Automatic annotation (TrEMBL):
CDD domains documented for this protein: TER_DECR_SDR_a
Gene Ontology CC: peroxisome
GO biological process, one term: fatty acid catabolic process
Assigned EC number: 1.3.1.124
Protein name: 2,4-dienoyl-CoA reductase [(3E)-enoyl-CoA-producing]
Highest taxon above the source species: Eukaryota
Gene3D superfamilies: NAD(P)-binding Rossmann-like Domain
Pfam family membership, one: adh_short_C2
Keyword vocabulary terms for this entry: NADP, Oxidoreductase
GO molecular function, one term: 2,4-dienoyl-CoA reductase (NADPH) activity
Amino acid sequence: MPQRHVEPAPVDSTAVFKNDIFKGKVLFCTGGGSGICKAMTEAVMRHGAHAAIVGRKLDRLQASAEELAAATGNQCLPVQADVRNPKLLQEAVAKTVEKFGRIDFVICGAAGNFLAPISKLSENGFRTVIEIDTLGTYNTIKATLPHLRASKGSYIHVSATLHYRGTPYQVHVSAAKAAVDATSAVLAVEEGPHGVRSNVIAPGPIAGTEGMDRLSAKGPAAQDYASFVPLGRDGDVRDIANVTVFLFSDAARFITGQIFPVDGGCEHLRTLPLPYPESVVDPEAVTKMIKPRL
Ligand code: COA
């Protein structure tokens, strides 16, 4: 029987792009203390940039900043701030500019997620994710925009693919990420004439991340996600990091207002994280399959 093609593991961006393309540049990344955003930060730093990583947990940020600096030879500033608080974000931006003198690149990456059907999700649960993802993105843009106008810089917003369809248990995140996509488009149109670009990266399921751990079914309902990916393997944080380097690089200077799904093509297959329709007919029955509480 013919065998399917399985795409090899991703290469590091340094195998494709020159090491010094971001020399003298500064990245400001919310959510950079862990997961996908940490890998995005590391890749940008490997090409010469210094970075500030912003998050809620200072101890995790400090440990990550040390790790990133050691791995890349460039400087990383950990700054504690909740993206829901505009004042704290402005202070984080001020600290970054005080240390590095400028900001060229911004990754709006801080996000919250858990699985819950509309029938069980509280108003506060819905609002919390909207506040972190959508308002957090807006607050980050507002706090950084003067610096990006000055540097003719570039934004990347970390979104998702799940709102391209009606993904059950994800109404809060779907609404939040749809708004992030829309925000990026307006930012691109308004700020293009000021020399600022804005694009969205929409990761599919990425193995080994907290998001994937929270969103995938456990136990007998667990699925082999790789088999549903047209390119035949799980997503890797380096897949997202590589697109980040491209979009911030001069090679992408004529690209703005776009959305880049990075998912090996699985957006088009319409697989679901939980068995359907069982998971929506009887939410209580799926509590054992998922990590979060309902
Ligand atoms: N299921 C249902 N509701 C949930 C929930 C879950 N798993 N987790 C939180 N909520 C609800 C809470 O019950 C609360 O609503 P209530 O007051 O009506 O009870 C509301 O959301 C706020 O929860 P709280 O824990 O106070 O908010 P928080 O700001 O501390 O953190 C998250 C909320 C979503 C950010 C938290 O889950 C988190 O820290 N996640 C880690 C980051 C993450 O998800 N990363 C992956 C991104 S893909």
